[in-house]
Amino acid sequence: MQAKEIIKEANLLYKALAPVLALGPAYGDYVLTDLARVVRICGRSNANISSNELLAYLVLFGLVKADKDKLNVALHLWDYSSQTRREYEKQTLKLIMDFTQQDGAVDRLELPGLLEAIDRNRGTQYTSHVINAIYRFAQIIIKADNQVTMQEMDALSSIWKLLHNSSSNVANPAVNLSGNDRAANPTATSPNPAPLSDVMAELNRLIGMAEVKEEVKTLTNFLRVQQVRSQRGLAKTPVSLHAVFCGPPGTGKTTVARLMGKIYKDLGFLSKGHLVETDRSGLVAGYVGQTAQNVDELVTQALDGVLFIDEAYTLKPPGDGRDFGQEAIDTLLKRMEDHRDRLVVVVAGYQAEMQSFIESNPGLKSRFNRYFYFNDYRPEELLEIFLKLAEKSHFTLTPPAQQATLQVLHHVYESRDKTFGNARMVRNLFEKIVERQANRLATVSQYDLTDSLLTTLQPEDIPVDEYLGTTREATSDLSVELPGEKSEERAEEISGAENLPVPTQPTGQMIGAPIPPGISQGYDQPPPPVPAEWTIGPASQSVNATNANPTNANPTPTAATPMAATPMATTALQPPPPAPIDPPQSTAESTLIQIRTLLARSLQNQPLQSQPLQSQPLQNQPLQSQQIQAKTNLRDGCLQVMFEAATAPEMSKMVVLMRQVIQTVGTQHISRLQIYGREIGQEFPAWSKEFRLS
To answer: What confidence score (pLDDT) does residue 512 get?
Structure first.
């Protein structure tokens, strides 16, 4: 990648970060620290930080700090003075190390959590824009040296997870985050709330929860009338704003509580309307006297806003004895009475547990008489959440991938229990799918790694097999129909996946070595015959694989063997020699060498070079052939093979070919097989197939 491109991308990132940098000088340091961590994570993947990567960081440093000298070097001298470039490479590397060695932590990013807290309290949307901008910067860093290795793909996946993990506890100059992760998230200054109409529109945009929306609207209308009565000097009807949110985790209780705080603020019932979130760990201490102090501190932070206590029923566990939770309840009730006009408390948790909790104390029962019930999201609603999350992270799903995702969501919904995570489960599923996409892209050439490829999720990225116990695709257009099979028939399943089909000679003889038990297990029907166009010589002539002579694999047509009898595809795709090639030792690397050797012999019309197997390079280089190229990768027991040609290779033939390869090399180091077919020059495969080898 040219220096001009690096500078252009760095400038685009700076423009995306400008609203955050305008919040104050401290935010510039947060930005530079996280970007330094990104550079180090990318550089760690190949044990080197390239010159272009250093240039990208130098440009951003100069823009953020308004350092004219560094900007001048980056913009005007970097490509024209090697001595100056080397000097500033050292300075930039020192800057990166200084920013990241302040706390010694590299594998964490502080900016996403900081911005998410600001967005919650101010109603802004900094987080999504900044996350997308930093992720694009990471992509540029990965591509800066014009090479994208599998290790760099792993680094990119790690950065994505760090960007979307906002639970880090940071010292925010605008938001005072103290205690444990959930102890308190109060604001140091009053947020600028949106108008009531905007808040209600935001509520309506939430997925599902129709009953909750209706209850909130009813409460809002009631409070609006009370506001008008107060303005006209009429007596107000006594009303308790405290509420009980009943429902399982991940159903939007915290989000609704935050919106209600804004509603109370807009209608004049609270002066700030901010939200302070906590749970038992933020209230209850381990020593006498400390619990009351914790409660006092949280109440003080929440005054003129909403105190949200998640899993509040844990304050009074069954058979509590001398548990300090009761002290927290007593102190909280007193503070609620002392600040009845300045404090709203929302307690949340499972329905049965919350009802028992409220009934256990007369003081709680008298103060909490407004209930909101949150139900599990239905599969279609979970899919909406998934698609919104994907869109926010710059991912799109193909229609088959969307159908497969819905299939998984239906399954987890039908088998849900009390701990069903709802939206949290969707986020976990999304992260797993993105990781699988990264593994799939490891087989793609570095020159084909476009933004479109990086942001598109395919059906094979969806873990249908993990959730449903099968790798059968959710759509029928990916099924394999082998020669001789009826269109409605499919291979039987082995360990929750499809069998590799077993072709035979017309005489009934098997091609190559016997099928390993792990592949042939459960195959109770005779295999289909090899089509005539796959045989060598006349259609009536059978081939003895053990005596086949590679030099005679393409006989010259004669009067006895007319040209029409010689199939066109014979030389492009012939069965591999039956004798397995013994590697120096049984390892995953030697197995991959064998696979490449067999594919080369099958796809090339010439013998391999006579060099030892162990001397062949272990790289993802395509094996040239007349028409078909094969790229291979073996990692963590998953063998990935990409077949490419001017026209996408026929799926059924590639499956048969890989069946022959697998039965030759064995399954000792291979537990899964993923096959792809693609036209040369295209970003996405025309077809894909996955098998589990038991």
So the answer is: 35
Six-digit token string for 325: 């939770």
The neighbour count for residue 203, using CB atoms within 10 Å, is 20
Structure-derived torsion over alpha carbons of residues 149, 150, 153, 157, reported in degrees to the nearest 10: -160
Reported as a pLDDT band with limits 50, 70 and 90, residue 645 is confident
Cβ-Cβ contacts under 8 Å for 124 (sequence gap 6 or more): 118
Where residue 277 falls among pLDDT bands split at 50, 70, 90?
A: very high
Q: Are 330 and 295 in contact (CB under 8 A)?
A: no
Write phi, then psi, for 275 (nearest 5 degrees): -115, 130
Q: Which positions ≥6 away from 150 have C-beta within 8 Å? A: 442, 633, 635
- DSSP state letters, 307-345: EEETTGGGGS-TT-TT-THHHHHHHHHHHHHHTTTTEEE
> What are the structure tokens assigned to 82, written together?
């090697």
Tokens 């906002």: give the residue: 166
Considering only CA atoms, which of 97, 99, 21, 94 is closest in space to residue 64?
21
pLDDT at 447: 65
What is d(CA 574, CA 591) in angstroms, rounded to the nearest whole number?
21
Average pLDDT, the chain: 74
The two most distant CA atoms of the chain are separated, in Å, by 113
Find, among 17, 23, 203, the residue nearest to 122 by Cα.
Answer: 23
pLDDT above 80: residue 454: yes
Query: Which candidate, 309, 372, 316, 354, places its Cα nearest to that of 335?
Result: 309
Residue 83: count other Cβ atoms within 10 Å of its Cβ.
8
Task: List, for residues 164-216, the tens digit of each pLDDT value.
Answer: 765 433 333 333 333 333 333 433 333 444 578 888 888 999 999 999 999 99
State the angle between helix axes of 3-21 and 126-143 in degrees (0 to 180), rounded to the nearest 10.
160
Supply the pLDDT for residue 343: 93
Q: Which amino acid type is present at position 227?
A: Q
Would you state the pLDDT for residue 604? 66
Instruction: For the chain, give the percent of residues with pLDDT over 70.
Output: 71
DSSP state of 48: -
Asked if residue 461 lies in contact with residue 467, where contact means CB atoms within 8 angstroms, the answer is: no
First to last CA, the chain: 44
Sheet holding 243-246, edge to edge: 275-278, 305-309, 343-349, 243-246, 371-373
- Looking at residue 409, what is its pLDDT? 94
Q: Which of 13, 15, 19, 18 is nearest to 39 (CA)?
A: 13
Decide: 664 and 513 in contact? Cβ < 8 Å. Answer: yes
Could you read off the pLDDT of 326-341 as tens digits, one per residue? 889 999 999 998 998 8
Question: Rounded to an integer, what distance in angstroms lies between the CA atom of residue 360 and that of residue 365?
Answer: 8
The residues facing 688 across adjacent strands are 676
Helix 150-163 with 25-45: angle, nearest 10 deg: 150
State phi, psi for 347 to the nearest 5 degrees: -105, 145
This prediction's pTM? 0.48
Report the b/e string of 359-393 with b at 16+ CB within 10 A.
ebbeebeebbeeebebbbbebebbbebbbebbeeb
Tens of pLDDT, residue by residue over 282-306, are 888 877 678 888 899 999 999 999 9
Q: Which long-range contacts (CB under 8 A, 24 or more apart) does 173-180 make?
A: 173/24, 173/26, 173/27, 174/23, 174/24, 174/118, 175/114, 175/117, 175/118, 175/121, 176/301, 177/117, 179/278, 179/282, 180/281, 180/282
